[in-house]
Amino acid sequence: MNTPxxxxxxxxxxxxxxxxxxxxxxxxPTGILLVGAGNGTGALVQWLANTPAPSVVVEGDPxxxxxxxxxxxxxSNLHVLREVVAPxxxxxxxHHYSNPAENGLLALxxxxxxxxxxxxxxxxxVEDPITIDQLAASHLPQTNWLILDCNASTELLQGAAQVLxxxxxxxxxxxxxxxxxxxxxxxxxxxxxxxxxPSIGHSIWVRDVALEAEAHQQESAAKAEALKQRDELAKxxxxxxxxKAELQQRLNAAxxxxxxxxxxxxxxxxxxxxxxxxxxxxxxxxPEWVSASANVLGFSAxxxxxxxxxxxxxxNFTQPGSATQLPVDGNTAYILSGCIAYESAxxxxxxxxQHDEAERIDSNNLSLPPDGRFRLRFTSKSSARSVAVxxxxxxxxxxxxxxxxxxxxxxxxxxxxxxxxxxxLQLEKHQADEVQNAVRQIESFVRLQQYLGADVLAPDMHNxxxxxxxxxxxxxxxxxxxxxxxxxxxxxxxxVVLAKALQKVAQRMQLTPAPLxxxxxxxxxxxxxxxxxxQAGLQLNNQVTLAPLVPWQSPTGQAFNYYDCGSVLAALAxxxxxxxxxxxxxVDGPPASTGPMARYPAMxxxxxxxxxxxxxxxxxxDYLRADEQNIVNAWQAELTALGKTxxxxxxxKLEKKACLLQVS
Length: 664
Prior knowledge:
- The protein has 664 residues and is an alpha/beta fold.
- The protein contains 15 helices and 32 strands.
- Strands 10, 11, 14, 15, 16, 18, 19, 20, 21 and 23 form a ten-stranded mixed beta sheet that branches. Strands 3-2-1-6-7-9-8 form a seven-stranded mixed beta sheet. Strands 26-25-24-29-30-32-31 form a seven-stranded mixed beta sheet, with helices on both faces.
């Protein structure tokens, strides 16, 4: 006799309400915040309606919010809110779909991958959305359970930095294809439950005691280190107190022989460790090249001639002058530090001159960095009696006197130890600059991706391509100026950014986008740029031309290799048919490896085909390089000789710097 085999049933996962019920017995809720309540018929809202803990449920859709009102009427400890919750308080769009359960911040395209028949029925612009942190602070400060039953739940956690550390339970509606977000230290993922769609479910996190213990241990170690540093600081303060009397004696002696003031162009406040603060007075070797006011010193040196601003009565750095301002001892190590706040295309040089009773006996110098801050170590000669400070400038620029400061002190770590300290300071500054730049580039990339929208993936911006902050500058220029055309020498990531910006400006004005003409000398990069435009749906009205480098000679006889662009530029000029067109020319090629001053021909090639009535903006990328700076200086001189009005704007805070010449 054959016995029929029993069919083994596949175990079904526990419903999410069962999980929440079990968690409520081990981690009692003191306050539950639920975002994405819908019309109140969902399992999570129904479970919440039978939970005695204080609760707040939030829904952004007006129609569904009306159905939630009966919950608040039936429960005194439950509060119903109509709010659009977003990652930040910035304005955003709230989308409405044929399935109201999918209403929210997500655009239609990613949702249609899950729900192919979903259609959009409307969209509302929300000026003042609210974050999770703001919700909790205003309505439920004791929140220790957070339930996000809505799309974009991962993004909403960006606005929950204050709430996350106090959570005991976190529930998020997520796609199974979506990587689990790193929520915060101390929360551990315990399960992911499938939902009504096989690709969507709910993930549950709970507070992990072991992780919290590790965090507390790290906090205790940090406190111990802080106490150690406090003790070391107290010891250092004690040593400082011991030397205070000696310094006071030296100060009193210096005050008795305080240097007399003399007529001067300007002075910089200078702190001296062994004397009263000195307003260090400066004169100039060529005072006719200088104009000084209370807070600003302007200079305009003719040609490439140097201009010295020296803290001596005569402005002559070879002689000490009639008044000694900074007395020093012989054979002593010193540090001169501070900041010379300047604005100039050519960085000034800082000089330090040592004098005996009659003449200069030694000198040290360094070039000032962009922020003007410096630190110069020197050892005085045995016969030295005073030092003078010199600032060597060239070209045109200003020095902001009220923002400049000097500080002279004895070197506490002379010799090898001082050199090591100097190297550490340089490394620390370099690291700080790198971190600041990385943060700035990340912020710019986020702004760029938000501007491009969900349908355009921001292109690669590492190594050769333009930096994210330069891409944001391109968008700002396109948005601020009604350009009739854009010409780009050197295609790539920037081409996609320019095309998208031109498209968005035209859509707002209900016009056809201005033409974008981009040149590249290598076929692989031309095809790569065309592919990027096609992927972004920006191929219309934008032309990427293969223009090999060919010999070109400047009016002065200099030979260059530059893009073969003449016929294409002529065709664009003829097609515009605008009496006084406004054109942006982005100069980001060819590469410097193709020859010195490689980008110099750009201006001349454009002016060959666009007449004097044109208003042209030349934007030079990579302006941190000497070649690009020399090219811009040459352009300025040539445009001035042609009688053109040139307005120059430099963007020194960009990673690779940039310079804009507005020609009219």
